[in-house]
Amino acid sequence: MDINTIRGILTITLMIAFLGLFIWAWSSKRKETFDKLSQLPLEEDEGQAPEIDSRSESC
């Protein structure tokens, strides 16, 4: 088995892995979870005051 055969097998393996990940990420079963997770950065933490960077206020 030469290096080109190994490269071909590796390329096909990575292509199949990429397609599997793509199908998993875009499946309709994952949509609700991803929608909830996409809103996390926009939610404020309850009970904590927002932090203010004091360096930006100094003149």
Helix-strand blueprint:
Elements: H1 3-25, H2 31-38, H3 54-57
Overview of the molecule:
The protein has 59 residues and is mainly α. It contains 3 helices and no strands. The chain has helices spanning 3-25, 31-38, 54-57. The chain starts with a helix and ends with a helix.
What string gives the helices and strands in order? HHH
Q: State the helical fraction.
A: 55-70%
Number of strands: 0
What structural category arises from helix and sheet content? mainly alpha
Shape, principal axes of CA atoms = elongated
**What integer value in Å does the Rg equal?**
23 Å
- Termini Cα gap: 68 Å
Question: Uncertain segments of ≥5 residues (pLDDT<50)?
Answer: none
Global mean pLDDT: 85
Biggest beta-sheet profile: none
The proportion of strand residues reads: under 5%
> With helices defined by DSSP (H or I, 4 residues minimum), what is the helix count?
3
